[in-house]
Design goal:
By secondary structure, the protein is of the alpha/beta class. It has one domain: NAD(P)-binding Rossmann-like Domain (Rossmann fold). The protein has seven helices and seven strands; from the N terminus they run βαβαβαβαβαβααβ. It has helices at about 20-30, 40-50, 65-80, 100-130, 150-170, 190-195, 210-220; strands spanning about 10-15, 35, 55, 85, 135, 175-180, 235. It has a seven-stranded parallel sheet, sandwiched between helices. The radius of gyration is 17 Å and the shape is globular. It starts with 8 loop residues before the first strand and ends in a 10-residue tail after the last strand. About 45% of the residues are buried.
């Protein structure tokens, strides 16, 4: 299936490793022009070379001006923007009792304020695209509260609310907004915790997700083939969630 992404201009945040890198690789593999951002410059430039993408360093905790500058640099590299994938590293684990104020504030700056700042910085470009798409990477915790992941449970629900508002307000200008809510994938931090095993007995499929499977879903939802998909969260968790949600 031709996804119609040839020549589309895509910015993937958190694109140096894990799910972000997989999304960038899938978009580039479909012919999109891709820029990737991340905090770790060495890892970012290495990933960009392998993906054949432009590298634009960005630390989301640096605030709105840093995000604006990065967005301007991306537009300069790509000549515009059609697709944005908002993604970032994992927040600190722990329940409410374990999370301190500093961790809460860092998570808020990265996840919620970061999503707002990125959306503000790219909205005009996506409107000018005529068929812009912004994909927010959240978590299955937006559908079912997960133990020991207080920050994910709290912040990502705010991102879902932001996405819903953006989808309604920018939809008339041709912009689509949606979330992808992944479950457990074989990313470096997860594999470190499992000792390299990809077995996941909590999933009906019995395994962790392959990041490439996530990347391919990003490419599909960002493509014209998914042109009627907006204002929603797509769960990709191997059937792990037991909750029934509308």
């Amino acid at each position: 299936m031709d996804l119609g992404l040839e020549g589309r201009r895509a910015w993937v945040l958190g694109g140096s490793s894990g799910l972000g890198r997989a999304a960038a690789a899938s978009l580039a593999g479909e012919g999109a022009l891709v820029a990737v951002s991340a905090r770790d410059r060495d890892r970012l430039h290495a990933a960009a070379r392998e993906i054949h993408a432009a590298a634009v360093p960005l630390d989301l905790t640096a605030g709105g001006e840093a995000v604006e500058a990065a967005a301007k640099a991306v537009v300069g590299e790509l000549g515009g923007l059609d697709v944005v994938v908002f993604n970032h590293g994992r927040p600190a684990a722990g329940g409410f009792a374990e999370i301190d104020r500093d961790q809460f504030q860092v998570a808020c700056r990265t996840m919620l304020e970061g999503a707002f700042a990125v959306t503000k910085a790219v909205a005009g470009h996506l409107v000018r695209s005529g068929s812009g798409v912004i994909v927010y990477v959240t978590s299955s915790s937006t559908k079912e509260v997960l133990p020991h992941l207080f920050l994910s449970n709290v912040m990502r629900l705010g991102v879902v609310g932001l996405m819903k508002s953006v989808a309604r307000e920018l939809g008339p200008a041709g912009v689509r907004a949606l979330c992808i809510a992944p479950g457990r994938f074989a990313t470096p931090p997860v594999l470190e915790g499992t000792g390299g095993s990809r077995v996941d007995r909590s999933s009906p499929l019995g395994r962790l997700g392959d990041p490439a499977e996530f990347g391919d879903l990003v490419a599909f939802v960002a493509s014209p083939r998914a042109g009627y998909l907006t204002g929603c969260s797509v769960v990709l968790d191997g059937g792990h969630l037991r909750a029934v949600t509308a």
